[in-house]
Amino acid sequence: MESGVTYAKGFKASGVACGLKKNGNPDLAIVVCDRLASAAGLFTRNAVKGHSLMLAQQNVRGGYAQAVIINAGNANACLGSRGDEDALKMAALMAQRFGLAPQHVLTGSTGVIGKPLPIDRVSAGISMAVLSKQGGADAARAIMTTDTVKKQAEASFTINGCEVRIGGMAKGAGMIHPDMATMISVLTTDAAIDAQALQAALKEAADASYNRISIDGETSVCDQLLILASGASGCPAIKAGTADYTLFLDALKSVCITLARMLAADGEGATKLLTVTVKNARTQKDAQLISNAIATSPLCKTAAFGNDANWGRLLTAAGYSGAAFDPAKTDIYIGTVQVCSSGGGLDFDEAAALNELKQPEVVYTVDLREGSFSYTMWTCDFSLDYVRINADYRT
Amino acid sequence: MESGVTYAKGFKASGVACGLKKNGNPDLAIVVCDRLASAAGLFTRNAVKGHSLMLAQQNVRGGYAQAVIINAGNANACLGSRGDEDALKMAALMAQRFGLAPQHVLTGSTGVIGKPLPIDRVSAGISMAVLSKQGGADAARAIMTTDTVKKQAEASFTINGCEVRIGGMAKGAGMIHPDMATMISVLTTDAAIDAQALQAALKEAADASYNRISIDGETSVCDQLLILASGASGCPAIKAGTADYTLFLDALKSVCITLARMLAADGEGATKLLTVTVKNARTQKDAQLISNAIATSPLCKTAAFGNDANWGRLLTAAGYSGAAFDPAKTDIYIGTVQVCSSGGGLDFDEAAALNELKQPEVVYTVDLREGSFSYTMWTCDFSLDYVRINADYRT
After folding, report:
1. Which of A40, A271, A392, B395 has the most beta carbons within 10 angstroms of its beta carbon?
2. What part of A 220-259 touches B (C-beta under 8 Å)?
């Protein structure tokens, strides 16, 4: 099946196991386009940046790329000049194997920081990779770290009856937080679109999706979001500011929001997806501050794990968020159950609230009743397994 | 034994069980001074404020107080006008019982938010309270919530041979974070000092202690730090800017730092105290940003719980802290074991690092090698028990 990064025309992929993950699972994802594609990217805002990521950031600046290679299990980060050399070697090996220019290869790496990358294994992995239109799922599996399920999404639209496809894959699980590309994700499209318009669309789609999820408030040194546009659809070129661009952007957002919600739902140790919506704020910033405070609050998230309708923690998080609001006006809902009215507790139906908290997706709504701005974030609950997973991740 | 809040002359205290805590433990702490004392306080910066706290904030403004009453087990917060009335009742009942002016009573409350305070039980508790010089420990026990040990500290110094005493108690455990008075703490001294100098000293001492601890990045609506100065030592009055004031400040800091470290070490679920020191930063703010990022990072703290020398997470947290620094210069130490040099991993002795991580106090040192500013914060590891405690706190 053509899915994820191979859903769009012009792209083949592969996912192989080359021995970087202790458990022997696939750990090397390769995506190759049959022609030089327009390319754009968003990268971690962390002051510390992985070596593979820095090379991708440099190579994408030209606006063109033809391949992506990402290894999991061992981040190529915090390794000095050796890390830079290994990133260059990854690109050179890819160029040699698939007949590409090395500067058109975008590299990525995720896993334990500060451990030198076994480049011989990566080299062997590149040699054994067989590209196919069915390889999207394998690639999605290979970039997983503590993810429990692979993450792929697809969308399409038409321009005068001509179908344009967008697909992608993502990995998340931990170190997830907004205001940057907060994970590793690779998107592909067969749209004909130039790098500048592609970059603008990617930023806008990320702000509506990946920049609205938080798992633990952490941001990694290896986070990147890449998109390649092959033009292989044969459809008319998409120009910024046109109706076609809006169609493209909507489809891109839909792919990114689907992947973002999958990332939040599969956060490390997560037992449920939490959707945090703040309504009727005086400004968009106020709505964002409060939803971010709740989505990153260990106390709100452990209560969700314990199915405890502890709305006081939501109001407390709103209170320290830095947002301007009058707590005496605030209403709070867990699902459809109102638990707080005008800043005070209601004698609500505990059984009904418990039922809402036991759903796979729990919606917290904070209605400030002061203005007309809203903001939604997605997160997950904070469970015993988050601690178990992260207590001995490296050793 | 005279300890904690009854260590200084002029103060008596009591701690009684009046039925606010489900487990029947003491839940009402009362401190009374034998005369009108100078008073100062620091309060939560949360936009949401508990009703008892707001009354204390109002009453302390006059610069004088004679008693403190704090209940645990049921926060008087988010309850509308009823909450304000209950706070006033608490002060009135105290005034009646001990012959005080109600505006000289400082009220406090901690526990579950949004649950009306059973004021009849508080009233019964006030009636049964018997004040004594030995009551400091009982009061310290009564303000505990999820704390596992009571927290008291004392210090003294002399002015021309005349002894001045400072003592105090604190409760913490969860919802602990800097940039405010981050818990409930009551300090008492028999120094003769006016309210203005007392407020300045309290702020400076809090900045060196309570404002440098984080347990979970959360801040409560009930956090307050109060100090009463009886003048009962009979020693000369302490004026701001004098050598005596410096002695007073140093002793006050020592009490606050001792209590702050106890709070961090006894954080919810904590198995160890983590001391995070950032050295040789370009500015104090940079050092503070990095130590705060590490001290609040779930990943750094779960690694500490798992005794995993995952220094990459420390460097990552430094990277997203917002501080200006060159990661390529950074050295990192776990205890005395250097694990990272110039931003790159060292082939360090894992056994030695493990031994450091197993100590009751683990010291992380991040040396930026760029300037001369340092900052230290105290926190704890992030364990399975933090999640267990908070998953069903309310129910």
Report:
1. A40
2. 220-221
CB B109 within 8 A of CB B57: no
Give the pLDDT confidence score for residue A236 in this predicted structure: 97
Read off the pLDDT band of B181 (50, 70, 90).
very low
Q: How far is CA B8 from CA A219, A290, B324, in A?
A: 48, 43, 45
State both tokens at B79: 């309850």
User: Which chain B residues contact residue A49 at CB under 8 A?
Assistant: 319
Q: ∠ CA(A173), CA(B363), CA(B315), 5° rounding?
A: 40
pLDDT of residue A181: 45
A-chain residue closest to B115, CA distance: A345
Residue of chain B minimizing CA distance to A223: B316
Q: For residue A99, give every residue at least 6 positions away whose Cβ sits within 8 Å of its Cβ, in sequence order, or none.
A: none
Q: Which residue ranges form the domains of chain A, and what is each CATH number?
A: 4-265 (3.60.70.12), 273-391 (3.10.20.340)
pLDDT of residue B176: 58
Burial of A241 (0-12, 13-18, 19+ CB in 10 A): exposed
Q: What is the DSSP string of B155-196?
A: EEEEETTEEEEEEEEEE-SSS--SSS--SEEEEEE---B-HH
* Min distance B310 CA to chain A CA atoms (Å): 6
Min Cα–Cα distance to chain A from B42, Å? 16
Whether residue B164 has pLDDT greater than 60? yes
Number of Cβ pairs closer than 8 Å across A and B?
213
Question: Which pLDDT score, from 0 to 100, does residue A185 have?
Answer: 93
Q: Does A358 touch chain B (CB under 8 A)?
A: no
Task: Residue A215: name the closest of A148, A272, A267, A179 by CA.
Answer: A267
pLDDT digits (tens, 9 = 90+) for A124-143: 999 999 999 999 999 999 99
Query: B319–A388: do the CB atoms touch at under 8 Å?
Result: no
The token pair at A267 is 């956060």
For residue B282, name the pLDDT band (cuts at 50, 70, 90): very high
Residue A218, pLDDT > 70, answer: no
Say if residue B391's pLDDT is above 90: no
